[in-house]
Amino acid sequence: MNAPIGRPADAMVLPQPYLLFLGDTTEPSFAKTAFGLADWAADRCVGEFGVDGCAVSTGLPRMTPAEARDAGARSLVIGVANQGGVIGERWVAALVEAMEAGLDIVSGLHVRLDSIPALADAARRTGRRLINVRSPPPGIPVGTGRKRSGKRLLTVGTDCALGKKYTALALHRAFVERGIDADFRATGQTGIMIAGGGIPMDAVVSDFESGAAEILSPDAPAAHWDVIEGQGSIFNPAYAAVSLGLLHGSQPDVFVVCHDPTRKVILGLEDFALPSVEEVVDLTIRLGGRTNPAIRCGGVSLNTSSLSADEAGALMAAERERLNIPVADPIRGGAAFAELVDSCLA
After folding, report:
1. What pTM did the predictor assign?
2. Quick one: which of 247, 227, 91 has its CA closest to 165?
3. What is the DSSP string of 60-126?
4. Are residues 282 and 174 both part of a single domain?
5. What is the DSSP letter of 275?
6. pLDDT over 90 (residue 11)
7. Structural domain of residue 77, as residue ranges?
8. What is the CATH number of the domain that holds 306?
9. What mean pLDDT, rounded, does the chain reach?
10. Strand ranges (E), 229-340
11. Strand bridging mode 130-132 / 75-78
């Protein structure tokens, strides 16, 4: 699923290819960075590496850091996006092993690699780099709410980790395939690693959140589309702040609601029920209308990865009939996804 994503001239250049580190993860949703890179940048990944207790796999070959280095890897990417963005104690020895094998360490976690004494010591000893992707640019202004030229699409969600990045990447690819001038705008660690640039929105101080979104998608020609990767959910008690700032600053003309139909509660916050798609559409229009009164919903992206093809097709058709808007799984593609693209561009 490698997408034709351009990289700005001043974007970071990460040492590639990658060895994907899965830590001791048991929940696939918390390994979304590894899965995102394996799915959208497979040509830049040589394998995966986990420690005892790891119960997930991207499907790439399992390798030790030394084996990956021999296979051409130049860095180990921490493929885990856990709650709080922390480095597990059981990971440290494995990360040191990777540096001793000749790999730099790339991380998009909140905790900086160089704040871990054992990692900082190993980096000095081996001469390897500790690269923190989750570092917003300096000088971000506060938001202005000023209407910008060009067109924008934002993916929003009923929760976190259910397909906003994949949906944005798939829509961007579809736009480009139709000959439309479009850019994918990354707002999270995995998207930045795929695109080679962007702003890690959840690392931006709240007062500057909408300002960061404004500079991420600046004025553009009237026919140009910025397809912006969404973050979190405005219904998520932990992450609503970044979602709202991104919504106001992005000023989307169109948004697509991303939803996992098998999920009933907020991931990691099981005391909170998942909102309905209708609730997300309604609140996104009411809040997003503050900076773009013309905001509209282009349709729904369903994550049907746990369903059979027949089950997925039946569910998408039923939801299309119930909601009266296009409903598709962008990864499955087909006529339903083409209809969603048409609706977004209408």
Report:
1. 0.84
2. 227
3. SPB--HHHHHHTT--EEEE----TT----GGGHHHHHHHHHTT-EEEE-SSS-GGGSHHHHHHHHHH
4. yes
5. P
6. no
7. 18-132
8. 3.40.50.300
9. 93
10. 254-259, 265-266, 269-273, 296-302, 327-328
11. unpaired
